[in-house]
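Problem statement: downstream parser choked on a complex file, so we are re-checking the raw output for the benzoyl coenzyme A run. The parser issue turned out to be on our end (a line-ending mismatch), but while we're here, posting the original submission so the record is complete.
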Amino acid sequence: MTSARPKIDFDSKIPNNVDLAGDRKLQRALERWQPNFLDWWADMGPAVDTKDVYLRTAVDVGRDGWAHFDHVPMNEYRWGVFLSEHDPDRRIAFGEHKGEPVWQEVPGEYRADLQRLIVIQGDTEPASVEQQRFLGATAPSLYDMRNLFQVNVEEGRHLWAMVYLLHAYFGRAGREEADQLLARNSGSDDSPRILGAFNEETPDWLSFYMFTYFTDRDGKYQLGTLKESGFDPLSRTCEFMLKEEAHHMFVGTTGIDRVVRRTAELMQDHDTEAVAGAGGIPLTMIQKYINFHYTVSLDLFGNESSTNAANYFTAGLKGRWQEERRDDDHVLSNDAGAVDAFREGQISQNEVPALLALNQDLRHEYINDCRTGLKRWNRILAKAGIDAELYLPHVGFNRQVGAFAGASITPDGRVVSESEWNAQKDQWLPTEVDKTHVRGLMHPVLEPGKIAGWIAPPSTGINDKPVDYEYVHFH
Ligand code: BYC
C-alpha cells in the first residue's frame, strides 16, 4: 500500500491538512462559520472560567506523533480539520460497488443519504459539549477537569470535521445544515438534538463517566462503520476521529474503575454496603446508572431491522464493524440473519435478510465491547473481597427504540406487566433520591494532587506528567 501524508497548514486561521488555502471559496465559507462556532462555544461550551488547561491538540495525522500537549487558554484552542493519510489504491470493500475505486466526490444518487449520515454524526458532537457544560464547576480533581475539557475540545473538533465535509461537498444545502448544527441544542423543547441520548442531562461526574463509557462507545462503533465508507473524505475523517475517541473512552473506563474502587474501600472501612452516609456511591446506585446509560446508548443503534441500514450498506456508504476482516462476500444479498423481536408479550427472534439486520449486527459488537468494562469493575470488587457483581441489563430493558420499545422487561430479562414494571422501576433506574445523593457529593477539588472523597485517584497522570501536576491554571 502506498499512502500519502497530506501537508499540514498550521499557520492559517483554520489549521488543516486539506489544502484549504488552495480553495479560497471553501476557505472563506469556513472562515465565516468560524465566528459562529466560537460564539456557540462561548455560550454553550465549558462554563468554568480558567486561565489555561493542559490540552492535547491534533497537529499531524502520521503514525508517530500526531498530537502536541501544552497549557492553552481554552478559547484559543486550535480547532482544525484533519483527514488521515490518503491511500490512492483504496477500493470500496462492500455493497454493490465492491471493488470499485472509492469516491473522492459525492455520487449524485447518494447525496441525500450521505448528507443525512454526516448531519446525524455532526449533531452528536456539539450536543455532548452542551450536556457537559456545567461539569467543570464540580470536578473531583484538576486531572479530571483537564480530561473533561480535553473531551470537550475534541468533540468541538469533531464538529469541525463534519462541518468541513458539509461545506466542501454539499454546497448550499451543506452550509445550511452546518448552521443548523449550531442552532439545535441538547434538551431544547423547540429544536432538540436529533438522537435521544443527546438530549439527556449529564448533571454529575458519575453520569459523565457513564456517558464516556457507554455513549462515546456508540460513537466508536458508528465511526468505525463510517470509516469503511466508499466516500473517501468521510472515511479518512472518521479514521482520524477514532484516534481521539480512544481517550474519551479511557476517561469513562478508568473513571468508573475509580468510583468502584473507592466504593469498595468505603465498604471495607465501614463494613457495610450502605456507603452513602460515608460520602460514597453505593454499588446499587452505580448499577442503576449503568442500567440507564447502557440502555439509552442501545437506542442509538436504531431499529434491529432497518431498511436504512440495508440501503446504506448496499450503496457503499456505511459498512460493518471491521468490514474487511469479515469472512463473507461483503454483499450479503443472499444471506439471512436473526433479529430480536417482541411478539404477543414474548421475547423472540425474526429471521430476516442479513442486509436488514445490520443495526443489530453492530449493536452486538458494541455489547461485547461493553462487557469488558463490567469484567474490569467486577475484578476490582473481587480483589477487594466483595461478594457482589455489576452487570449489563437485558437488551430489552428500558428501551425507547426498536423491537423492545415500550415493552415491560426487567433487567434480568423477564417480561412483566406494565404496572409491575412501574412499581419496580425505582430499584432499576436512578431515582430523584439517588440523583440528589450523587449531585450532593459533587464539590470541586482544585488543589493539585487532591481528590474528592467519592472517587479513588487515578493511577497515572496524562502524557507522563504526575497525578499532582497543575493540569489547570486559574486567573
Ligand atoms: N433517536 O431505520 P432506523 C457519537 C430514527 S455517537 C431518534 O432503525 P437507522 C458521539 C431514524 O433516524 C454516534 N431517532 O434508522 C458519542 C429513522 O428516521 P427516519 C453518532 C432515531 O438510520 C458521544 C427512523 O428512526 N453517529 O459519535 O438505520 C459523544 C427509523 O430507524 C433513533 C451515528 O449515529 C434514536 N436513537 O439507524 C459525542 C451515525 N434511532 O429515516 C459523539 C449516523 C433511529 O425514518 N447515523 N431513529 O426519519 C446512523 O447511522 C443511523 O441514522 C442511526 C439510526 C444508527 C442513528
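For whoever reads this later: The beta strands are 52-58, 67-72, 336-343, 346-353, 472-473.
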